[in-house]
Amino acid sequence: MYNIKNLFDNDDVRIADERAGMKVIEYKRDLSVMPSSAETSYFAAKMNVRKRQLVIELDGSEEYTLSSGAMQWMVGDVQAAADVKGVGDFLGKAIKGSVTKEGAVKPKYKGKGTLVLEPTYKHVLLEDVGAWGSGIVLDDGLFLACEAKLKQNVVMRSNLSSAVLGREGLFNLSLSGSGIVALESPVPREELVEVELKDDVIKIDGNFAIAWSNSLEFTVEKTTKSLIGSAASGEGFVNVYRGTGKVLLAPVKDLTVRSAMSLVK
Predict the structure, then answer these.
(1) Closest CA to 71 of 59, 85, 58, 53
(2) Local confidence band at 220 (pLDDT 50, 70, 90 cut-offs)
(3) Domain residue ranges in the chain
(4) CA dist 38 → 11, 12, 107, 112, 193 (Å)
(5) Distance (Å, rounded) from C-alpha 25 to C-alpha 84?
(6) Helical (H) or strand (E) element with 254
(7) The pLDDT value given to residue 244
(8) Which of 224, 2, 226, 259 is nearest to 113 (CA)?
(9) What is the enclosing helix (H) or strand (E) of 229?
(10) Which residues does 93 contact at the CB level (< 8 Å), separation at least 6?
(11) Which residues pair with residue 201 across a beta bridge?
């Protein structure tokens, strides 16, 4: 038996989202500051730059997979497993982790208790993978946690040029099945643009797609039919997602990342 005080009942903490036993808590203000950093912290909170944490309530019925090193503390009858079946399995996971920039081994947690993840200045999004059809493909480094019943795969770009010319990695983590995944996004949900395609195409000038349906074909193409024309237009190559599915766009992604990182330093 345990009782947690001054977490959910703290007047400086609010529950931003809640699904499938996962709660996203947000600290309205950062009160752990010194006089030299108080002004920066005050204006950061006004601009929605705040600490956030994912809290998972384990009731014994579900198992959760976490990003490597994400756990901060846990209480109750909670068991952790490395989810490695042998040397060969570890090497395979290590290779997958290196190409997707995710942790080599994602630990699983089960039992009855409370699991609290490390705080982050990024925005924690809870996405229903089942709503993405055949699965969701994530941009590098977005994965935080998910229900363990979701199937994880590494998907490869349709061609090498998609990685080189599109400034994307050659491999990405894909999740499929029915369940909830928690993502660490540099942009809040209310600023993300969601584009639904039905036998259509979206072209993006830059690395702004943070997630997309596994059913979409990703390629990199010239904005015009010739290299000279693309150079003259000032656009060059664009990332192209074609088919039926969804794309999540972060229009101010780079700016948000720089702002959060400068505050952490």
Answers:
(1) 53
(2) confident
(3) 13-191+254-264
(4) 19, 16, 37, 39, 33
(5) 31
(6) helix 253-264
(7) 97
(8) 2
(9) helix 227-233
(10) 84, 104, 105
(11) 242
Q: What are phi and psi of 223, to 5 degrees?
A: -70, -30
pLDDT in tens, 27-75: 999 888 899 999 999 999 898 899 999 999 999 999 999 999 999 999 9
CATH architecture of the region 13-191+254-264: 4-Layer Sandwich (3.60)
Q: Answer yes or no: are the C-beta atoms of 28 and 50 closer than 8 Å.
A: yes
- 140 or 148, which is more confident: 148
The structure tokens listed for 130 are 């089942």
Q: What length does the chain have?
A: 265
How far apart CA 28 and CA 234 sit, in angstroms, is 42
The answer, as to whether pTM is greater than 0.85, is no
Q: What is the mean pLDDT of the chain?
A: 83
Confidence bin at 206 (pLDDT 50/70/90): confident
Tracing tokens 């019943």 back to the chain, one arrives at 149
- Tell me which amino acid residue 172 is: N
3-class secondary-structure state, position 35: coil
